[in-house]
Amino acid sequence: MATRALLYRRPAEPATLMVKHGSQFFAIRLRRHRRARRYTLRIHPTDREAILTMPPRGNLVEAREFAQLHGGWIAARLGRLPKAAPFQAGTLVPLRGVPHRLVHRAGERGTVWTETRDSGERILCVAGGAEHMDRRVHDFLKREARKDVHKASLAYAEALGVKVKRVSLRDQSSRWGSCTSAGSLSFSWRLILAPPYVLDYLAAHEVAHLVEMNHSARFWKVVARICNHVERAKSWLDTHGNDLHRYGIQD
After folding, report:
1. Domain spanning 92-246: CATH 3.40.50.1580
2. What is the secondary structure of 187-237 as a DSSP string?
3. Which has more pLDDT, 192 or 58?
4. Domain boundaries, the chain
5. pLDDT digits (tens, 9 = 90+) for 92-137
């Protein structure tokens, strides 16, 4: 937890509180934010939990009342999360938008690679012990994401005459990418699960911020000038983006 956040947490304040809705109990994660003006709730799609943000002067009694009041909303949102798809043998995982079935190859050497069966089915083969399967698939997907994002970002930076200082990957739940004025770009590794034009658009979007650090009409003109599939990618993310958060997690 950041040092700044510790300043607002009471010494004996719990990290979570329990809320009951009908016959269900939900653990709500608490966090204080120095700029929060009111209590807010959001659902973390990867951690599959509700997060209640409290203002600096908020208290546990009010927080519990707020969470309890919105128990139905919490239950409905958690219930609508897509079914988890852990990285284990048999799971279908999209790689650049193409479904690949995970296959464990315990007796073979190597890490992770792709194959196509005679039937035409695409598979993602994972060598080694079954206990390492989750980590190896995660590592493989992040490597592929880094390669694609880095290539696209540099290409768009050259087209706009700007310089990218650094490209990093995270598992962000609230945004697919970000950009700093210093030229550091950050992307969700989960973009490697989407069709290539989606990752490509996000790279164009973040690089365009090095020209316009806003979302003004001028910014969108920059994006449209270098990327011809903006609306198609935005539409895909609006429809399927939340589904990407279910891969590599357990229910």
Report:
1. no
2. EEGGGGGS-HHHHHHHHHHHHHTTT-SS-SHHHHHHHHHH-S-HHHHHHHH
3. 192
4. 3-79, 92-246
5. 999 999 999 999 998 888 899 999 999 999 999 999 999 999 999 9
